[in-house]
Amino acid sequence: QFNTDRRDADKRITREALIQISEKKEEDRMTTVVYDETWHKGVIGIVASRLTETYYRPTLVFTKSGEKLAASARSVKGFDVYNALEGCAEFIEQFGGHKYAAGLTLLEKDYEGFKAEFEKVVRDTIDPKLLNPELNIDAEINLAEITPKFYRILKQFAPFGPGNMAPVFMTQNLIDIGKGKRVGEDKSHLRLVVKQGNSTQITCIGFGLGDKHDLTCEGEPFKAAYVIDENEWQGTVSLQLLLKDIKA
Q: pLDDT digit string (tens) for 204-228?
């Protein structure tokens, strides 16, 4: 029961964090820094890792811890987040960790100052190429292979993050069944419902892939790289694909 509760918490908090990024129009920043005093301290590290799967950039997830705010930090391959935090030391009470993961505490009054400074430090020091993850395909599979049992096995390899990224799969000859559309306030994201041959259909969401819509809407087959995820909507849990890239 504890594991289930924890997993539900990390999914819910990840959703809430993504909404926060969207509402504050922070999709194009060099960093992700989010905070909610109700988030469970035990899962903010997992949430930070999950957020890097959507917005691939140095990420901090804060929650309330006693009188202070506590955060878990995750980085991207090749960028030293510990060094970046050292550059923001004036706002931090204490921190520790290593190149790719760290933890810190600060006073609530310093949160906004820290958030601005962390963005500035990363912007000034990161090689922009590091924000484009290399897309390594772990395996090519057919849609028919994506079953709840398959996903349960995948989840045994979690938590995912730098050093243990979620497996990326590729499937060819996908067809959008006619429900593809650009979504999000600025229409920068892509939502599809696809099938392959006679397979069952599956929903896909591609953050930042709105400009690929034309590749999918002509009824022509295309191939996609993606991570398999769960989506919970109105009490129903279903599998979905988090698209990483699409090619004709």
A: 999 888 888 888 887 789 999 999 9
